[in-house]
Amino acid sequence: MRLSYLGPPGTFSEEAAVRFAPDAELVPLPTITASAVAVLSGEADVAVAPVENSLQGAVTETLDLLIHREGLHISHELAIDVVHNLMAAPGVKVSDVKRVYSHPQALGQCARYIAEHLPGAEAAAAISTAGAVEQAISADVPSAAIAPRRAAALYGATLLAEGIQDDDSNMTRFVVLATEDSAPTGDDKTSVCFSFDEDRSGLLFGVMERFAQAGINLAKVESRPTRVGLGRYYFLIDLDGHRRDPKVAAVLESVKELVSEFKIFGSYPKHGPSG
Q1: 35, 205, 232, 236: which sits with the fewest CB atoms below 10 Å from its CB?
Q2: What is the pTM of this model?
């Protein structure tokens, strides 16, 4: 199996990829979008992409791929603990640091540590946590990076502080993207999105009511702009059950009657590797 992910090696996405498929041939790519497109082009069989963090919320790039790209489906999910570490080139001390590189999500998840320990440092966004280490080492001012511990060994950095995330319950949920979703297991989740072509009271309630009447639990409800103007949204729902379950299938069919656009991202086993 060829598995693409947001590289370079040393990212949390790589950790999730190894957790999901330890024997896979890993294909690191520069963006989440590139890793997903690799599945559509045949360069990879599946991709692992972050979709939600317990502190920062949705990873919008992944959600927008699922909404707007045809042919991508969620086949599995997994969650990993996120432990952030501060690292720099050998010889750089915390008191020296003028700039801190990391992915925007990681910077946000370590905001309190940065404010308390690096109050004068500039925050600099990087495409990935591992890429941030390379940038920090080659920067024109004394710099540090926030990244997984493995990145320090990979890129020759020195650990300055470990476990600097603001909340130790920090977890990221990843989805596995493929050209097909998974067969029913008896303990599944289905992700869908829909939108309305008008704006009036009761529209969203009407959809929620269909699920409630069928006794189907909704694990998550959120929204994303449709890109056609302010006030227009896609609604994204994770629900318990598989799209092939008769009860779920019937409700999904009834919901289609109430909305203008409807898309099933996929059905997949509810519980994946975590820790």
Answers
A1: 205
A2: 0.86
